[in-house]
Structure to design on (228 residues):
């Protein structure tokens, strides 16, 4: 089954404690993105990757890092989380020649 | 600049009523895509429809229908004979092929509540 998986699905952490949210897709897609969803703002792109070792900032990249060492994986790293990063995070992937985005199930992060 | 506006923050209807969710977009691109997603209380995003800018045909899928009008930059979504299970947040989104990895620009979302 074609899918995007994210882990963990729920996470409560404290300010400053480094964390990683994993994202993996099994569709051999070139493009992958991270979005965050906040009330009244919809979803906004954090970072994106167009292929292995090719990543770039989206619209709200501050406080986040990503890496793309393998085509299937695109982890989101918060080196020093702060309460304003409390949000619902979605990973997405799409193929080079097709515009349909496949979204993961979401990760609900709370930073205390 | 690219932008999607969903002016209705919340809509409440009684079961069996028809309801239309509005979506207005802004873009200078001549090729673009429009999407609708449903987000039920469980939080996942459920893909409903994709339309490209060359295809202004309206679409119907069961109780759902979409009206795409380039002249008014609108892509409205109608649910006919609404049901309680339609209660969710609905997002309209605009996308291009290559801009920022084909990112989607989302509207703020419309929370639909269907009461029995």
């Amino acid at each position: 089954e074609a899918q995007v998986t994210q882990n963990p699905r729920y996470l409560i952490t404290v300010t400053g404690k480094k964390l990683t949210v994993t994202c993996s897709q099994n569709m051999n897609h070139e493009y992958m993105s991270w979005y965050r969803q906040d009330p009244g703002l919809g979803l906004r792109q954090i970072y994106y990757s167009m292929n292995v070792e090719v990543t770039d900032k989206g619209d709200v990249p501050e406080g986040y890092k990503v890496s793309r060492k393998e085509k299937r994986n695109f982890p989101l790293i918060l080196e020093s989380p702060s309460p304003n990063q409390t949000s619902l995070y979605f990973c997405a992937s799409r193929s080079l020649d097709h515009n349909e985005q496949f979204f993961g199930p979401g990760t609900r992060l709370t930073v205390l | 600049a690219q932008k999607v506006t969903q002016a209705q923050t919340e809509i409440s209807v009684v079961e069996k009523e028809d309801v239309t969710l509005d979506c207005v977009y802004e873009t200078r691109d001549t090729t673009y895509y429009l999407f609708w997603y449903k987000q039920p209380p469980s939080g996942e995003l459920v893909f409903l429809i994709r339309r490209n800018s060359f295809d202004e045909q309206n679409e119907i899928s069961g109780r759902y229908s979409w009206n795409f009008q380039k002249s008014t930059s609108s892509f409205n979504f109608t649910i006919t004979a609404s049901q309680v299970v339609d209660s969710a947040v609905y997002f309209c989104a605009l996308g291009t092929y290559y801009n920022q990895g084909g990112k989607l620009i989302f509207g703020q979302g419309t929370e639909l509540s269907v009461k029995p």
About this structure: Residues 34 and 94 of chain B are 5 Å apart (CA to CA). The longest strand of chain B covers residues 88-95.
